[in-house]
Each structure stands twice: as structure tokens, then as C-alpha cells.
Write a structure and sequence with these properties.
Elements: E1 5-13, E2 17-20, H1 21-32, H2 39-42, H3 44-48, E3 53-56, H4 69-94, E4 104-108, H5 118-121, H6 123-126, E5 133-137, H7 144-158, E6 164-171, H8 183-191, E7 194-203, E8 209-218, E9 226-231, E10 234-239, H9 243-261, E11 271-274, H10 279-288, H11 297-306, H12 313-324, E12 329-336, E13 340-348
Parallel strand pairs: 4-5, 4-6, 11-12
Antiparallel strand pairs: 1-7, 1-8, 2-3, 6-7, 8-13, 9-10, 12-13
């Protein structure tokens, strides 16, 4: 038990700008209804997404004019630096640590590009030591909140006593496209928001929860379900209509396989902590995992308040589950480009 990796803290952060779902729907109608033949039919997603508001890197008026790579990446860098510091500083404070105590930092993000990565850009401001190990990870998308957590756990396990800081940050709204007259772009506009989360992990005796097991499942021939298409203007969303039914049909056996490889079964899990990709995805997850309807209450609350922030969203849910009281054993679940399912099981420390 003393050598296992423990979760010491979780913290979350979001940009100051708030866009209500009603504002998003009205603006989207103004921008697309006269140019997209199927807009009226597609616009129902705003009402049915289960979202009340989301936070954004830029105010609403920024999105009504065209932007290219430079504008988007400048906004990404500026807001990401602020969110990184906010979430990481909170997580370290809650763990009773400072930046100088961090031995390794894992940063995941798939909504922008920054080189040098933010861990280097912010090293002095955070108080990181010169011998800190930096592991920036790009491309895991929505699954990265769990996959990145698992990477951080393995690094912590390999060096007992070392402090590993895990930071997940995404600015999904910056991928909004005026020129994309597609179903996927309208759905993304209705679903996605911006945010960041940070966790502190360390192998030792103390913590909020023990990280028990990790695992992933890569589904073959599913590259077209989710991802980015990249052109001169920026990222363009790839989001298949088949995602909710695919999750409902395929996620259960994949999770069962991950658990079985770690000597567990679905019945051993007291609470699934899921990435809330959207209202339809949550319903599909409850069906796939044989959960009671509306069992994913914290997931729906996070979705309503913040939208789908990609990778940090599941950590927003984790924070709320911890606050409410972690059950004996829980499993974090997220899906992302690849198409991949990622799972981490946690055990409560009595």
C-alpha cells in the first residue's frame, strides 16, 4: 500500500468569458441559417445538448469574425498559460506542496500547439526546479484526461516519493469555424467549452485515493469517428454521427476487458466517473455500462455548467465525486480519437 501511487489533489479552472447556450444558439443561427440548408433541423442540438453555459477563451463577439492560425494560437497560448498556472497552483496548494517540490510534469492538450511547451514557458512563474522532467502530450483528445492521468501514474510509480503534476488543458472553442458548413461544426459549436484541471500524484502512504489499475482499448478501423482535420484556417472537427451508438455497443466489452486484465470485473466498481461528451453520449454510457438511468449525475451537472471541455472534463467530474465522497472503488472512463477507451480505477483510502 505504501508503494502504490496516491492521488493527492485535484483542482480545476476555466476562462472568465461565459457564453450561455441561448447566446450560442442565437449567434449560430445568425451566422449559419441563411447559408446551411439543414440548419433548422440541426439547431435542435443546442436545446438537447444538456448544456446551460460554457466558459470560453474569448468573448462571444470574437467568434463572429474570421480567424486564422495566428489569431487562434495567440489566443490559445495566452489563455492556456493563465489556466495552467491557476489549476496547477491550486492543485499543489491543496496537496501542501510548491512548484519546487515537483519532480515531473505531464501536460496534455489537443486544441493548440505551443513550443516550447507551457511547462517550460511557466517554469519560473511556477517555481519549478531546473532538473524537472517535462512530458507534453498531444493528440489524445477527450481521452487524455484519463490517458494522461495514467501516464502520470506510471511515472510516479517508477520513482517512489517523486511528485508528479498532471495538467490537462483544452480550448475547444478556438476551433469554431465560420467557413465549415457541416453538421459536425454545428454540433461542436453546441457542445464544446474551455477549461483546465490539474492533479498531483505520488507513490507513498498519504493521499485522497489509491490508483489501482490503468488500461486502454484501441478499436480497429475507427479513425473517422473523432479527430481534427487541419487546414490553413486551423483545426476542423471530425465527429461521426455514429459515436453514441458505437459507444453503446462497444464500450462495455472494452471496459470489461481492461478490468479483467487487472483482475477486476464490472461488479467490483461502485461508481463510474465518466467523461460527459454530451447528453446522448451519457445516455449511451449508462446503457453500455448497465447503469441506472441518470446515474451519471455529476457528469450531467458538469456538462450543464461547462459543456464538453475535452480532456479536463472528466477531472471536473472527479473533483465533484471526491467532494461528495469517493466510494470504495471507482473507475474513470473516457473515449477519444483513435478511437480509444481509457480507464483508471481508484480505491478510497480509509
Amino acid at each position: 500500500m505504501s508503494d502504490t501511487v496516491k492521488l493527492l489533489s485535484v483542482a480545476t479552472a476555466a476562462p472568465e468569458h461565459i457564453i450561455t447556450q441561448a447566446e450560442a444558439a442565437e449567434t449560430c443561427a445568425r451566422l449559419f441559417s441563411h447559408r446551411l440548408k439543414d440548419f433548422t433541423r440541426l439547431s435542435g442540438v443546442f436545446e438537447n445538448a444538456g448544456i446551460i453555459k460554457r466558459h470560453a477563451a474569448r468573448p462571444l463577439e470574437w467568434f463572429v469574425t474570421p480567424h486564422g492560425w495566428q489569431d487562434r494560437m495567440e489566443a490559445y497560448a495566452e489563455t492556456s498559460r493563465s489556466l495552467f498556472v491557476d489549476a496547477a497552483a491550486q492543485a499543489l496548494e491543496r496537496a501542501g506542496l510548491k512548484g519546487q517540490d515537483v519532480d515531473c510534469v505531464v501536460t496534455v492538450s489537443s486544441t493548440g500547439i505551443a513550443t516550447p511547451s507551457f511547462d517550460a514557458q511557466l517554469a519560473r512563474r511556477m517555481g519549478f526546479r531546473s532538473d524537472i522532467e517535462r512530458v507534453p502530450v498531444f493528440g489524445l483528445g477527450c481521452a487524455a484526461g484519463v490517458s494522461g492521468f495514467a501516464i502520470a501514474e506510471r511515472l510516479a510509480r517508477s520513482r517512489p516519493g517523486a511528485v508528479v503534476l498532471f495538467v490537462s488543458l483544452e480550448l475547444c472553442t478556438l476551433a469554431f469555424r465560420l467557413d465549415e458548413l457541416t453538421r459536425a461544426n454545428i454540433i461542436a459549436t453546441a457542445l464544446f467549452g474551455d477549461g483546465a484541471a490539474a492533479c498531483v500524484l505520488r507513490a507513498g502512504r498519504e493521499g485522497l485515493a489509491e490508483v489501482e489499475a490503468t488500461g486502454e482499448h484501441l478499436f480497429p478501423d475507427t479513425l473517422d469517428i473523432m479527430g481534427w482535420r487541419i487546414d490553413d484556417s486551423g483545426f476542423g472537427i471530425v465527429l461521426a454521427q455514429s459515436l453514441p451508438p458505437f459507444a453503446e455497443a462497444e464500450l462495455g466489452p472494452a471496459v470489461d476487458g481492461i478490468l479483467a486484465r487487472n483482475g477486476l470485473a464490472r461488479g467490483d466498481i461502485d461508481r463510474f466517473i465518466c467523461h460527459p461528451g454530451g447528453a446522448k453520449v451519457l445516455a449511451a454510457l449508462e446503457s453500455a455500462l448497465t447503469l441506472k438511468p441518470e446515474a451519471l449525475d455529476h457528469e450531467r451537472a458538469v456538462l450543464a455548467e461547462f459543456g464538453n471541455m475535452s480532456s479536463p472534463t472528466v477531472l471536473f467530474v472527479l473533483e465533484r465525486v471526491l467532494r461528495a465522497g469517493l466510494p470504495e472503488r471507482s473507475a474513470m472512463i473516457a473515449m477519444g480519437p483513435g478511437f480509444t477507451a481509457s480507464c483508471v480505477t481508484l480505491r478510497r483510502i480509509s
